[in-house]
Structure formats: structure tokens, C-alpha cells
Write a structure and sequence with these properties.
binds ligand FVH, 8-stranded mixed β-sheet, 266 residues
């Protein structure tokens, strides 16, 4: 009995298949470019139809929404009755439109957002956001749990994508901040590796709960928050960047914060 079929064997599709097989699931895989299943221990389907017809859940993990549409459109007639879990990254609108299209062809859609990278799939920290009908989630969750903790975020099929993209913006914002910090240290001749290990990481870890609890520190610790002091601090940071000749575009996110601080202080 096939438990899961996976459409897409890129870095993520292979990691998903590997984690499911490791947990004892029967897995069928399909990839546009054949031959990528070697060494996985999965059954390789020769067509998308064959993978869907193998039964169980069909998990789609392709490059983007356009590639999902391109892959599923030719097999639209085969979708009736399929439980289809889309773990391809996309926007909330794309997820809602895809879910509507799948339902229109008689499939039961569950939308997902993978909060893991290939090496962390199946590890303790990994989790997967799902949105769509709760009863389908309840059936799919035990089968897909080996990928990462299943976390349902609502019946709206757009919510998994929404939270996924929002969480990614948080991560990329931090990443831009870390890039800026390292560039500054490098520009002034500091020891980048020591700075990363002994200063940046412990500092960001200490501040993380504040950053997450409120996008603005003022919402988290109002009694310690003095907008004039924060604005002066940001001005100093920008001046330090200018002094070091670090390009202004890296500090762009700080200039936006400064504007907000000035408004709060006024
Ligand atoms: N890898 C990661 O760190 C992130 C973590 C969070 C979630 N993302 C999303 O997962 C989706 C797949 O990402 P991936 O890492 O597997 O990506 P690739 O290794 O580049 O593999 C892409 C697969 O998509 C197939 N593909 C591309 N275009 C088409 C198409 N037009 N029709 C059918 N299949 C297509 C490609 O097939 P092939 O090139 O081997 O024939 C790969 O199977 C993605 O949404 C991430 O945002 C991963």
C-alpha cells in the first residue's frame, strides 16, 4: 500500500522522501527529469498520473506555483478523489487559487509551508504549517509527522503560505542586519569570525524574544523605551556605517526604523 506520493525530487523533495522512507512509509516518487530517485528506496513512477494513482497522499514540492500548475494541469482529470498536499512555496493568493482549482477538479487540497531546510527535515526543530480542511489535516498529520511537527494554522488555504512568507521576511530581515553588521566590522579591520561567534550570535540570541514579541521594541518593553534615545542610537549606527564606508543600501532598513523612532519621539 502506497502511503505517500511525492511530485518533485529537488533538494527538498528528496529530503521529504528520505524522512518518510526512514520512518517506514511506503513512498512513490515522480520528478520531471527522471533518474533522481536512485538510492532513495522509493518506487519511481514514470508519470504524474501513475504517482497520483498509486494512492495515499500526494505531496507536491516543486520550484514554484507556475511549475505546480504546469505539472498538474495536464492530469486535471486524474485529480478527482486525490488528497493533495502542496508544500511548494507560494503566496497566499496563489495557495487560495490553487486550492479552488483543485477542488473544482474533485481533489481535496491541503496547503503547506515547510519551516525547515533539507538537512533539518525530520529533526526536532522542523515544523510544517498546514491550512485547509481540518479533517484532511487530521488524516494527513500522522502520515506526514516524520517530516516535522505538523501545525495547522486555519481553514483558509492561504494561511500556511501567508505565515511561511511572513516568517521568511523576518528571517531575511535578520540576515540583512547580520550582513550589515559583519560588513561594518570587516570594513574597520575587525576580526569577523570572533565578532560573529562572541558578539553577534549571543547578542542576537538575547534580543530574539524581544524582536519576535513585538516588531518594535517599544511594544515589548515600553517602560525602558525612550524614543529619543533609540533615535539617537540609530543615528550613531548610521554614522558609524558612513565612517566605515559601508554602503547605505545595507543600512536602508535602519533608516526606515529611524524615521519611525523620530515620529514616536516627536
Ligand atoms: N531548499 C530549501 O531550503 C527550501 C526550504 C523551504 C521550502 N522550500 C521550497 O520547496 C520547494 C522545492 O525546493 P527545492 O529545494 O526542492 O528546489 P530545487 O532543488 O530547485 O528543485 C526544484 C524542483 O522543481 C522541479 N521543477 C522545476 N520547474 C518545473 C516545471 N516547470 N515542471 C515540473 N517540475 C519542475 C525540478 O524538477 P527537475 O528540474 O529536476 O526536472 C525539481 O524537482 C520550493 O518551492 C522552495 O521554495 C525549499
Amino acid at each position: 500500500m502506497n502511503d505517500v506520493s511525492i511530485l518533485g525530487l529537488g533538494a527538498m523533495g528528496r529530503a521529504l522522501a528520505g524522512a518518510l522512507i526512514h520512518a517506514g512509509r511506503e513512498v512513490t516518487v515522480w520528478n520531471r527529469t527522471p533518474g533522481r530517485a536512485s538510492g532513495l528506496g522509493a518506487r519511481e513512477a514514470s508519470s504524474v498520473e501513475e504517482a497520483i494513482e498509486a494512492g495515499g497522499l500526494t505531496v507536491v514540492c516543486l520550484l514554484d506555483d507556475a511549475s505546480v500548475r504546469e505539472t498538474l494541469a495536464p492530469v486535471a482529470r486524474e485529480l478527482a478523489g486525490a488528497d493533495l498536499v502542496n508544500l511548494t512555496s507560494g503566496s497566499a493568493r496563489q495557495a487560495r487559487e490553487l486550492a479552488g482549482w483543485l477542488e473544482g477538479h474533485g481533489a481535496r487540497p491541503l496547503a503547506g509551508g515547510i519551516m525547515a531546510v533539507p538537512p533539518t527535515v525530520g529533526t526536532d526543530g522542523a515544523f510544517i504549517l498546514y491550512s485547509g480542511e481540518r479533517d484532511l489535516f487530521d488524516r494527513a498529520a500522522p502520515v506526514l509527522a516524520p517530516l516535522g511537527r505538523p501545525h495547522w494554522v486555519g481553514a483558509d488555504p492561504g494561511f500556511a503560505a501567508l505565515y511561511d512568507m511572513a516568517a521568511l521576511s523576518g528571517m531575511y530581515g535578520m540576515s540583512a542586519g547580520a550582513d550589515h553588521a559583519v560588513t561594518l566590522v570587516q570594513a574597520e579591520g575587525g576580526d569577523v569570525e570572533t565578532f560573529r561567534r562572541e558578539v553577534l550570535q549571543p547578542w542576537m540570541e538575547q534580543m530574539l524574544p524581544f524582536m519576535v514579541a513585538g516588531a518594535d521594541v517599544s511594544e515589548t518593553v515600553p517602560e525602558e523605551y525612550n524614543p529619543a534615545m533609540q533615535a539617537a542610537g540609530l543615528r550613531t549606527m548610521l554614522a558609524a556605517s558612513d565612517e566605515a564606508g559601508v554602503p547605505a543600501d545595507l543600512a536602508g532598513h535602519l533608516r526606515a526604523s529611524l524615521w519611525r523612532m523620530r515620529r514616536a519621539a516627536a
